[in-house]
């Protein structure tokens, strides 16, 4: 999992709040959340991480937050809304880790973040505690606007303490897990297919660095590990450590996801030691 | 029409200005408008509502603003630019309603907002008054940058009063109207098809709540009213009150717009009383 | 080339930094750059110009910056990241022109900006100088995050002087050039195809105004010059000066790029004097 070298903001600097949703940018829902935030914490700086999370796949938001958190200072509040169960009995959760706060539905979204930090604290939000802050669900389908946006603003501005908001409670794990040993390999998963068709995995740079002669195996294929795209032949599918310090599968001048028929959550194996593999030229599909 | 529970900003808080356009995000036009705003009011907070309004359909911007205004504090300035007639003789207008200001071409965009508030004040902007502020059209095609952005900044910063900018003048009504009684029904319209294929109408939650046993009729079909998506059968098209407090037509696990061949401005009828309708399972197209 | 009527910000106003990339908005990379900026300069105002630059076409970013710079105040820092050569030996460059700063890979992106201003100063960034600011490449593929974002923040906040960052060095020219005389015509190029299929050229309004009876020629076709879209017949392809004060090729109610099979970098000729051309009605393809 990615490291978290948090830095302090300059004295008197505005706090940061990030937004990660599956709302897209066509409709005005993101702007409406920002108004709710501005009403309660006008000095807060709001940064969009992405609003293009795959609907029904909250774990994707958690994965991106795990990658990005190292770039944000202590005190940052991250609000994530991928909420297919809104209106049902799913809870809302707050996770504190390394001085940053993560607010989201408790539907697997926070699983990777919790698993990355044994010292993380998590809380299940309680309606009574929210009501004391004047926060309540005015709709059955838009808790991002009604609850998470104003609550994120309150947290970031330091006016409430997490323990006021609910009781300690572990978060749900979700369908992604950080890579773990399994026989002669580490077993990870594909977490995200990015817009270039690269597949980002749950295997970290640190885990890769502990192998002496690693190779990557998935769905009957073996890929060699390279340091940069430029080392791959045209059309070749390879594995490399990306800018997020995670293992990524890529095809030079093509889409690895198409070439290898990859899908999120699919297992990926990092073999600890493997005979060297040849560079193979082939046409991208 | 949606309610407007405006709230005051904290003392000394930055004012808000929202942007709603059909510019998209591919080209840098939105960023250029933001520079013009920052030049005149650097402390102003700018919130993007949406830049994906359907070109040639300014009423869509007015509908979203009607939905969103309740989330913004008094003093907020909303700048909307959907302007197929730029360069022609169409006027620019300013509408004040419930302590918020709306700046837009007078092409129907402001019609719903004016109709929602009998106390709204509207002005037709005059070139002389703008020139006194150093604001003039430097191009015949980008009045959003040349006029509306700097004027919005001046208004939001409180340096000009609306009555300085032009003479009182009613705004043009446009092709959408809030639902009105017509025989044994309320006659509304489809205002927006969202990215999921849901159809948002001009019938408000309040109007729905005044019916004893309502049903929705359009194009020869009758839809039952449900409280949440989960009450609908798979593939069933239903009507429900959405998070914007408006009546919406939706298909469970599908696109109501496709299934029912819906288009913006099409009439929708809310029958005041109707025999109960059965839940009907069917495959989405 | 567009004029640059820079204006000063109000006293004590936050400085501006713009971002122009080919990252898109699907993945969180833009948000991660903004965090790096906020860490070093929390009061800085960040404006997105566009994140939809064509990959492998850095000159497109330079063209948009040339168009937009006139709207930004002195002191603004523009960070542009279109970086197919990241990880190779390409340098990073800083260009100062008319009181604004442009930071980008030295791959042609800055060529138009340098050519527009004979007084521009440019520097090649040096790793030692960056290291003294605590700035270094932590990845081989994301110098936007690791170097350009934090460096842009330092420059905008006035804590470093450009001459501290490297040695004077001319920037690479790239594949676009401002229009120049060639026989009985000015020879320019198509720089950008916008989302409507209009083609923006490197011929400026000022150059057009110096011709007595100009026409536009490209690929065996001659287009007449009009003042507004409305003067064109339906389906007719014409040339006009656009809101960016540049010559643009457009088809009324259609896509000039499709109708004329236009592509970026293609030459376009402005004939100084030409017999008048008739308005021609035809169906858009």
Report on this model:
The structure is a homotrimer of 285-residue chains. With 285 residues, the first copy, chain A, is α+β, with helices and mostly antiparallel strands. Chain A is 20% helix and 28% strand. Chain A has helices at 29-40, 58-68, 111-115, 127-132, 143-156, 205-209, 256-259, and strands at 16-21, 45-50, 77-81, 92-97, 100-105, 121-125, 166-168, 180-182, 185-193, 199-204, 215-218, 221-224, 237-241, 246-251, 267-271. In chain A, α1 runs parallel beside α5 (143-156). The longest helix of chain A is centred in the middle third of the chain and has 14 residues, at 143-156. Chains A and B meet through α1 of A and β1, β2 and α2 of B.
List the helices and strands and how they pair.
Three copies of one chain form a homotrimer.
Chain A: E1 16-21, H1 29-40, E2 45-50, H2 58-68, E3 77-81, E4 92-97, E5 100-105, H3 111-115, E6 121-125, H4 127-132, H5 143-156, E7 166-168, E8 180-182, E9 185-193, E10 199-204, H6 205-209, E11 215-218, E12 221-224, E13 237-241, E14 246-251, H7 256-259, E15 267-271
Parallel strand pairs in A: 1-2, 1-3, 3-5
Antiparallel strand pairs in A: 4-5, 4-6, 6-7, 8-9, 9-10, 9-15, 10-14, 11-12, 11-15, 13-14
Helix pairs in contact in A: 1-5
């Amino acid at each position: 999992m990615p490291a978290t070298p948090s830095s302090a903001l300059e004295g008197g600097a505005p706090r940061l709040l990030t937004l990660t949703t599956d709302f897209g940018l066509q409709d005005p829902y993101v702007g409406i959340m920002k108004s709710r935030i501005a009403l309660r914490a006008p000095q807060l700086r709001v940064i969009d991480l992405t609003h293009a999370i795959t609907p029904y796949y909250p774990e994707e938001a958690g994965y991106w937050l795990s990658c990005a958190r190292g770039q944000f200072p202590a005190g940052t509040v991250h609000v994530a809304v991928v909420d297919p169960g809104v209106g049902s009995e799913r809870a809302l959760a707050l996770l504190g880790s390394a001085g940053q706060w993560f607010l989201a539905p408790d539907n697997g979204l926070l699983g990777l973040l919790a698993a990355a930090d044994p010292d993380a604290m998590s809380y299940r939000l309680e309606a009574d505690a929210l009501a004391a802050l004047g926060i309540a669900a005015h709709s059955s389908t838009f808790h991002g606007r009604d609850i998470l946006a104003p609550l994120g603003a309150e947290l970031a501005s330091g006016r409430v303490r997490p323990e006021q908001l609910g009781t300690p409670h572990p978060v749900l794990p979700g369908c992604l897990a950080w890579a773990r040993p399994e026989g002669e390999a580490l077993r990870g998963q594909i977490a995200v297919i990015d817009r270039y068709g690269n597949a980002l995995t749950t295997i970290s740079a640190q885990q890769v660095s502990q192998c002496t002669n690693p190779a990557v195996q998935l769905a009957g294929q073996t890929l060699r590990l390279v340091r940069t795209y430029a080392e791959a032949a045209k059309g070749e599918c390879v594995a490399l450590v990306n800018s997020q310090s995670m293992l990524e599968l890529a095809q030079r001048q093509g889409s690895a996801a198409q070439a290898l028929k990859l899908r999120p959550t699919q297992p990926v194996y990092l073999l600890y030691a493997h005979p060297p593999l040849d560079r193979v030229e082939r046409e991208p599909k």
